[in-house]
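Hi R.,

Here's the chain you asked about this morning:
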Amino acid sequence: MSTRPSRRWPLYAFVAWTVFVWAGRIRNGGSVLLAGTFLVLAAIALWRRRHWVTALAAWTVVVWAVRTPVILVHDHPVGFKVVHTVLAVVSIALAVTAAREATARRAPVSSGVA
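And here is the predicted structure, written out as tokens:
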């Protein structure tokens, strides 16, 4: 049994942020299909944490790694670029934190005996 304290806040913060960002995209008339993938993965990650948190985190990093440069080079207002860069940075930071915590929870705990 693990003596590591339960740290579910990274998962909950990541899922809440994901819902905030991508439900907002739907509300603003964005791609329902792309946003839907995030919302479905977020729901599954809450229900079946083990591998789905990692899948949601990976998808988050990939999508923002592709979208951010595209947003920055297109002719968008500076405010739009700043907002989306902040969304990307916070999303990726939360994704990495949640994935690390999920991975740490899956890893066997060393007894310290050689």
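One quick note: The chain has a mean pLDDT of 89.

Cheers,
M.
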